[in-house]
Write a structure and sequence with these properties.
alpha+beta; L,D-transpeptidase catalytic domain-like; 5-stranded mixed sheet; about 20% strand; disordered C terminus
C-alpha cells in the first residue's frame, strides 16, 4: 500500500535527524550550557588549574588581545590563554559618552547577573561600564559587552567559538564561588617603552593611573584592591574599615599596602588521570555541599542599573 505524502515526509525527516546525530552534527545543548572542550580542560589540568578556580581578564586594544588568567592554590593568577579580539570600535582612549562607539578602558567587575546567555551577539557579559570612576567624570553609556559575532559598536567582539570558551570559563568560575571577576581594559601593554611612546597623548595622565594597576598585577599576580576617590583609581591602598569613599571626593586617610612579589609555582610534572566529563549539575550551574569562599577586591560599586541589563 502506498504511503501518503505526509507520512513520507515525516519518515524522511526522522531519517535525516538520525543521520545528523550519528554523524555527530546533532546540537542538543544551547551554547551557554556547553561544557568546556576537552583540549582546554586538558590544558587547565596541565597548568595546575581547575575550571572552578577564580579568573581575571585583561584586554589590550593595540595588540587586539584578551587574556584569561586563572588562580592556583597559592592564591596567585597564572596565564591560561590569550585570545585574539576579532573587532573593537574606536581608538585608544576611554569611552566618554553613549553613542561614541568607543570601547572602554579601566577596571571593571563582572558578576553572575551580568552574564547574558541569550545575547543577540551569540553570548555576552556586561563589563560594568560606567563604573564609579566613569560616573565621576560624567561618562555615559550602557550595555557595553564582551560578546561574540565579531562586530562591535563600542564593545569588545570575539568570534563565536572564542566567546563560547571565555563565557564557559567565566560561568564555571562564578558557579564555583567567585563573587565577581575583574576585567582590566588597557590601551596597550603598559611597558615603560610603550608609555614613553605615548607621552604626548591627550590621555597620558589617565594611562599613568591605569599603569598603577597594571604594574601591581605584573609584580604580584594578584587582583589589585581598587577604590575610587578624587576621580582617580586608588590602587593597593590600606585604610580603616570605617573609611568612606566618594568617587569625586577627597580620599580618606590611607597608605600603600605592602607588595608580595610573585614566586611562581612549578608547572605540574605529571597529571593524574581524571575524567573530562563534566557532571550535569556543574553544566547547569547547580552546586551541592558547602559554599566555597568568595573573591572580592573592589570597592568600585556596580554599574548603573541600565548597564547591567541584558539587551545585547
Amino acid at each position: 500500500m502506498l504511503r501518503s505524502s505526509w507520512q513520507t515526509s515525516v519518515i524522511a525527516a526522522i531519517i535525516v535527524a538520525a543521520a545528523a546525530v550519528i554523524g555527530g552534527c546533532g546540537q542538543f545543548s544551547p551554547a551557554y550550557m556547553k561544557p568546556l572542550n576537552k583540549q582546554s580542560r586538558a590544558m587547565l589540568l596541565g597548568k595546575g588549574m581547575t575550571e572552578e578556580s577564580a579568573i581575571l581578564i585583561r584586554v589590550f586594544k593595540a595588540e587586539s588581545e584578551l587574556e584569561v588568567w586563572k588562580e592556583r592554590e597559592d592564591g596567585r593568577f597564572y596565564h591560561f590563554k590569550s585570545y585574539p579580539i576579532c573587532s573593537y570600535s574606536g581608538g585608544l582612549g576611554p569611552k566618554i559618552e553613549e553613542g561614541d562607539r568607543q570601547a572602554p578602558e579601566g577596571f571593571y567587575l563582572v558578576s553572575m547577573d551580568q552574564m547574558n546567555p541569550k545575547s543577540q551577539y551569540h553570548l555576552a557579559f556586561n563589563v560594568g561600564f560606567p563604573n564609579a570612576f566613569d560616573r565621576s567624570h560624567g561618562r555615559t553609556g550602557k550595555f557595553i559587552m564582551i560578546h561574540g559575532d565579531c562586530t562591535s559598536r563600542g564593545c569588545y567582539a570575539m568570534t563565536d567559538g572564542v566567546m563560547e570558551e571565555i563565557y564557559i570559563l567565566a560561568r564555571e568560575a562564578l558557579s564555583g564561588g567567585q563573587t565577581n571577576f575583574q576585567i582590566h581594559a588597557f590601551p596597550f601593554r603598559m611597558t615603560a617603552a610603550n608609555m614613553a611612546a605615548h607621552e604626548k597623548h591627550e590621555w597620558y595622565d589617565f594611562w599613568k593611573n591605569l599603569k598603577e594597576g597594571y604594574d601591581y598585577f605584573e609584580v604580584t599576580r594578584q587582583a589589585p584592591r581598587i577604590a575610587v576617590c578624587e576621580r582617580r583609581y586608588l590602587i593597593n591602598a590600606v585604610y580603616d574599615d570605617t573609611a568612606r569613599f566618594s568617587a569625586s571626593g577627597t580620599c580618606p586617610t590611607h597608605q600603600k599596602g605592602q607588595i608580595a612579589a610573585f614566586t611562581p609555582l612549578p608547572t605540574p610534572k605529571s597529571t593524574q588521570s581524571a575524567s573530562l566529563t563534566k557532571p550535569l549539575g556543574s553544566v547547569l550551574g547547580l552546586r551541592f555541599g558547602p559554599s566555597k569562599a568568595n573573591y572580592s577586591a573592589f570597592t568600585l560599586g556596580p554599574a548603573t542599573p541600565e548597564a547591567s541589563g541584558k539587551k545585547r
